[in-house]
Fold this sequence. Notes:
Blueprint: H1 13-32, H2 42-60, H3 70-85, H4 87-94, H5 98-102, H6 114-117, E1 118-121, E2 131-132, E3 135-138, H7 140-152, H8 155-172, H9 175-178, E4 184-185, H10 193-205, E5 213-214, H11 225-231, H12 236-241, H13 249-264, E6 280-281, E7 291-292, E8 305-308, E9 314-317, H14 322-351, E10 367-368, E11 375-376
Amino acid sequence: MKKPDDLSLTLYLPFVGTLRLLEMLIAAAAFMMPVPAYAYDVDTGHVFLTSFSLELYNKCFPASTAFRDPDAQKRLIQGNRGMDTGKGDMLRHLNLSARERAQLNGTSVFNLTKRIGNWHFYNPDRTDFSRVGLVEQSQKRLWQDLKDGISSNGEKNALLFLGGLMHLVEDVSVPAHAIPVYHGPTEIAALGPEHFKPLVTYMRKAGKAPRGMIKDPIDWISPDSKWLAENLTPAAELCSAVGSGAETPDVIRDGLAHAIYALLQVQIPGCNGVKWGDFWILPAGQEYFGLYAIGNAQPMFGDQGVVRSQNGSICEMRDHDKRYDDVVRELHRAAIKADMKMLRWGEGRIVSGASGINDESGVIKPVKSIRSGTAHLSRRHQ
């Protein structure tokens, strides 16, 4: 397989022409937009995680009024939803006036057409391999666009983009997004057969891509609200772990990714030598994506079957195995803790108008405050 740098889609232009490439992208948009090619379900997953985090955050910090206003909460949640449902759906739910819409800057990041060439996967150690031609397989460009949106909008509107960042952070708590392992429409093969076809062919052959879609089981497991409420309470230990807001979104996201990697190294209860990570194969060489470890009839996460480790140890997983539920609860708990850190950062940098955020060049941009209508220049991050 060629290196990603050698696989630019522009190489196909002499053969298919610019018009044909455009047709391919339009076709991709048609199949990608109506189907769930994302991590958690929008409403039962993302909205729940954000709403739970907001409630817990307000209990941890009773003196804070930053996110108690229903309008602020709505903007955070709709910004989060908008990353999967699109700009139009987001704006309809917000019911903004024409004047309010005119004041919004940078909302193209929520356009569903962005999903064609900008995916939601993220591994902090493999971003050098994430670009293939016109396609950015990681969150990289979306992440930067959302940070730019925070910098270029007033407080209330900036919350939409904070919600978008929280969405991408939550995605990282799904192992297949953080390793990453491709899942989504199998038609991506048309965007570049030499690179993208191998990501889906093995799943098709194994019968794991019904109706042209590879679905990751963890995406569709709803958070256990009762367990989370009992195990994530506004106790001093949890609230202090949220920190002062000094952690940047980049640091928070990377911290969550490494927490997920650590969890995948944990041994499956009752199975010596087999860890949770044995359900996936890590990326190798210059490949951005790993694979689902489905060889030798091994089950995907959540299914019944025998899991094999690289050293030959085996672990039998039962149908509706409780151990699956236990580890997913930990994934959701990790996502909520990261969300709360994002809110803490947002309170200091957006709601308080204290400072801007770094772009890729390290330049600090001002955040506009709706209270004064002026821009507050920030200090350089330590």
